[in-house]
Amino acid sequence: MNKHVVPVLVQGARMPTPHELPEDLIPLARRQAVSLSHKGFAYDVEKLAAQLRQLIQPAPRQRSTPEVLSAKAEALKQLRLELLNFKDSPLYAHRVAMGYLPALGDGNPDAQIIFIGEAPGKTEVEQGLTFIGASGEVLDEMLRSINLDRRDVFLTNVLHDRPPDNRDPLPAELAAYQPFMDRLLEIIQPSVIATLGRFAMSYILRKYDLPEKRESISKLHGKLLRAHAPYGEIYILPLYHPAFVLYNATQKSVLLKDFQKLKLFV
Ligand code: URA
Fold first, then answer.
1. Does residue 157 have its Cβ closer than 6 Å to ligand 1?
2. Ligand 1 atom nearest to CA at 123
3. Alpha-carbon torsion 244, 248, 251, 255, what sign?
4. For site-directed labelling of 150, which of 3, 16, 42, 173 has its Cα 20 to 30 A away?
5. Roughly what angle, to the nearest 10 degrees, separates helices 171-188 and 198-207?
6. 199 lines ligand 1 (CB under 6 A)
7. How far does the chain reach from its first CA to its final CA, in angstroms?
């Protein structure tokens, strides 16, 4: 990981002249220095925060070429077909018995941000689409708050079929669908994985073997974590599930605030 130095001059401290600094700090001097004074403390801190924000701003991703875009679209099409024929899934019999459709995910196959939820709901499996019910409406509202639209991002779930009675995913089900998630991430190559709810969070933190993998969502929500994907450095942002905030205004404002972290990548 790159290291950055921001010289901070506290309460009128003088910036050393370049020849007073260690050689490796000379290029960092003066221009980037931020002074913190008593008088303008709030203003100065905001200046420092802006400077830090700029430093952690990820480099904008290169636009994919038309060839790459069409390879992504083709790979997704193939994956959807495999999911449709995934007879070994522990949820296949239930899918067929109920006349449900699998929902692999929807959105931009070249998205910077992928959102991962738990499993498609009833509305979703009736149409084979992701996040189109009540939770999807919350998600749309959150996306609008950061000037995004669902067509700018990719939406998926750790399970692509709906478990009976909307129960929690079982370990065997998570394992069965894991190859689909691995391939989705390989195709889309997002810079940010935003997990929705505790199942997706724990799944992704374990997948990337992050030290925070045993922490609770109440501790990690809204924190940007770094991880190494096979295609480069990425960020993981744990978020509460939209369904959790549906009828709770306080939780909704927490989710809105956490979403602001994604502005770094917009
Ligand atoms: N809840 C989810 O986790 N995913 C959906 O697609 C819909 C509701």
1. yes
2. 7
3. positive
4. 173
5. 70
6. no
7. 22
Walk me through the domains of the chain, giving residue ranges and CATH numbers.
Answer: 8-56 (no CATH), 66-265 (3.40.470.10)
pTM equals 0.81
161 ligand 1 Cβ < 6 A: no
Task: Yes or no: say if 235 and 192 are a contact pair by the CB < 8 Å rule.
Answer: yes
What distance in angstroms lies between residue 19's CA and the mean position of ligand 1's atoms?
Answer: 59
Report pLDDT digits (tens) over 187-222: 999 999 999 999 999 999 999 999 999 999 999 999
Higher pLDDT, 55 or 183: 183
* Alpha-carbon span 106 to 77, nearest angstrom: 11
Q: Which atom of ligand 1 is nearest to the CA of 135?
A: 8
Residue type, 91: L
The pLDDT value recorded for residue 1 is 43
If one residue of 127, 130, 181 were mutated to test the ligand 1 pocket, choosing by the most ligand atoms within 8 A of its CB, it would be: 130
**DSSP 8-class letter at 236:** E
